[in-house]
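sorry for the late reply, my laptop died twice this morning and i had to redo everyting from scratch. anyway the thing you sent over, i finally got around to it. pasting the sequence first so we're on the same page, its 348 residues, then the predicted structure underneath. double check i copied it right bc i was rushing
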Amino acid sequence: MPQHVYHLSHIDLDGYSCQFLTTRCFKKIECYNANYGPEVTARLEEIVKKIEQDQFIASSDIEALILVTDLNLTTKEANWLEREAMRIGAKIQLLDHHATGASAAERFAWYTLDTSRSATLITYEWLQKHYGFDKENHLSAIVQAVNAVDIWLNKDPLFEYGKVMLGMISGAREVNRILFPKQDRAFKLFMIEEAKKRVDTPDAPITLDDDLHQIKKRFFKQEKNNTKDNLVANYVTDLLTAEKQRLTIHYRDYKGILGYNVGNASIIGNNCMVQNPEYDFYMDVNFRGNFSLRSNNKMDVSEMAAQIGNGGGHPNASGGKIENYKDSFVYADVRKFIQNYINEKTGS
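ok and here's the structure:
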């Protein structure tokens, strides 16, 4: 029975680099990412549900491995995960380097904690030991760079390269990870792959820094070249269009597409309205509850902004702020909150 890996990792360079390795090692793997706090529990619950769905579709148990990297669990979270894993017949392996997980590491055999190395290096050596991964050590240099910057080995020869990679990932905000997690992850893993290609070049940190703009453009370019902003806008618009059923909201008798923390509403919102003429408005809300509205002569969004957010603007471009906005790292919850809020404001 082939192993199916469900890999949860952190949202920084170290976390994504762990997935850069595992996606090269395992044929059947699904990746998830979380920041610390309640999102960890939410993603673990998502993984458990996905394993149950996969078991149902396969009409049998599957050899599931829940792999957690670069995230420490509380004892409560670890207890819950172990109970759920036993219930669904899954194995667990956690690979981390944060000292805050020490108490949980003492209690669970599957909890590997080593504060002397980055999670990427721990994961790399674990894959080599148990799966014969990268026997030729082709990836050792990029792993060294990540390790050097993550645990701040500033005398390491690849430390400066790791610094460029650190900013490369932390600054990669072109695709919202809550709204489009797979595409955001693909973008970041693509950049790590491009960094791997340059790690052994002369003046590697400068080379990577100089090339980053073109690396990003290469990921987003579809048919014709354009400015990076336009390439990103077209890419995100296509994602919004492909997912529009999941993103649909209503205001009175009007139908709209709801984005979350997408940004660049002037270009993306207008593109979205042109590509989807059956929709009347585009709305993008950020994590603070501020929103932007766009239309293409289908409705007066300034009236909508005034009614739901004490806002205003122009008939085709307006904005405002939602009262007592409740943010979430689960898009479906954001959409539900916004729709209920609109319904309350309009008496729908």
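The first helix runs from residue 13 to 25.
thats about all i looked at so far, will dig more tmrw
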